[in-house]
Design goal:
Layout: H1 18-47, H2 55-62, H3 71-93, H4 110-115
Length: 121
C-alpha cells in the first residue's frame, strides 16, 4: 500500500489590498454557506431518524450554480464535512465520547455556554 503525502504552505496575508481582503472574505462566507447546507441536511436526517446523507447526497444538494465557488472547491468542502462526521462517529463508537461534534453541528454555541448564569460560579 502506498502512502500519499501532501505539502501545505501557509502564506501570510498581511499587507494585501482592501479589495483582495474583501474577495477572500466573500469566498470564506460562501464556503461557510456550503458547509451550513451540508450541516442542515445532516441535522435534518438525524432529527428525522433517516439515513445520514453521504457524499452523493451532498453532491446533489450543492450542485447547480447555487454557490459562487468553483465546483471542485464545493466538492472539497462537502468531503471535509463528510469526513468530520465519519471521524466523530468513529470516535464515539470507539469510546471517545468527549471528541465533540463536527464543526458547525453542535447544538449550543460555546460563547453562550460560557456566558450563561448557571456556569458562572
Amino acid at each position: 500500500m502506498s502512502r500519499i503525502s501532501a505539502m501545505v504552505r501557509i502564506v501570510s496575508l498581511k499587507g494585501i489590498a482592501r479589495r483582495q481582503r474583501a474577495i477572500i472574505r466573500e469566498g470564506k462566507m460562501e464556503a461557510a454557506r456550503v458547509w451550513c447546507e451540508c450541516r442542515d441536511r445532516h441535522l435534518k436526517a438525524r432529527q428525522e431518524s433517516t439515513p445520514w446523507p453521504g457524499r452523493n447526497e451532498y453532491h446533489q444538494a450543492t450542485k447547480g450554480g447555487r454557490f459562487a465557488l468553483h465546483s471542485q472547491t464545493i466538492q472539497q468542502i462537502f468531503r471535509a464535512f463528510d469526513a468530520a462526521v465519519d471521524s466523530a462517529r468513529r470516535n464515539r463508537r470507539n469510546g471517545r465520547i468527549r471528541c465533540g461534534s463536527p464543526p458547525g453541528t453542535a447544538h449550543k454555541p460555546r460563547a453562550l455556554a460560557r456566558s450563561s448564569p448557571a456556569s458562572a460560579g
